[in-house]
Design a protein that fits this description.
Elements: E1 7-12, H1 23-34, E2 39-42, H2 48-56, H3 65-84, E3 89-93, E4 96-98, H4 102-105, H5 111-119, E5 138-142, E6 154-158, E7 183-188, E8 197-200, H6 202-212, H7 219-226, E9 233-237, E10 241-243, E11 245-246, E12 273-274
Parallel strand pairs: 1-2, 1-3, 5-9
Antiparallel strand pairs: 3-8, 4-10, 5-8, 6-7, 7-9, 11-12
Amino acid sequence: MVLKFQTILAISAEDVADPLSWRQKSLITAANRTGLEIHIVQSEEPTESEVTELMEAGDGAHPSRGQALAWIAHLKVLQRLVEARVTSALVLEDDVDWDLSIRRELAAKSPVVTAIRNLTDSEPARLDLNPYGTNFEVLWLGHCGMRPDKPGPNITFFDEAVLPLDQLKVWDHKPFDNIGEHQRQVRLGDGPVCSWAYALTWQIAEKLLTFMKNGGDAFDVQLSNACRGLLSCVTVNPELFNQAKVTGQAGLIDKADGKEVDVTAGAVQIGMLKTPNIRYSARCNAGRSDEDKVQCLPASDED
């Protein structure tokens, strides 16, 4: 089991036949670079009635059509977990990125995983099978920030993979709360926003399907709301997975600096791909050795 999850699934609606597509190709090269086995779940085009039904169940403003499409994709993956009785799954969106050190970050005795066990008072019988423990329901590893309603249980520790505070970005552009330089925090309770990477079991997927069957706000917002009472959620902050973006047009020519890019081979050149909060992007360094690794961070004025 890679990262000790039974499976790692990536949700994707991308048309890989499009010569300008880059998400899945770059995802696979990053996975190969870091030794992850990721199964891509190709989203099927929902029926118009499915989309309309979900939108009409909301408040008129949410979910939007785009949010409804994302809802349906996530719900179908949750249904797949339930039907297959998957004991543990890490669910990703197809544009996520992570650090080259991800396997070390999520090793059984790493500071991150040890903090998860200690915070939830979990001592599994075998760390090699279940290093995270069982006393929680959702493990949120990839998000775009969180603002806790109130101080909650947490464990904070030094992590050299965390960027300096002045380089960290969060959705509301405010400083990270109660976190010092090169520190990471594992929190119990309040959920963040952006469902870029989260882990759960089929039993929790079934519980979420019941809670979310009538739609409402965006999927990630509803999941965050569920973490405020319905579910016991653990969040790693700063996140271990973030959203990669390609600057300019993702095509055969990088519009930013004119470099030729072999997109069909999944090669995203430096200067095109940017990922916030990730020290050494796996996507950006897919074709580089550890000795030649580089940073691909957005500029201070970029989202």
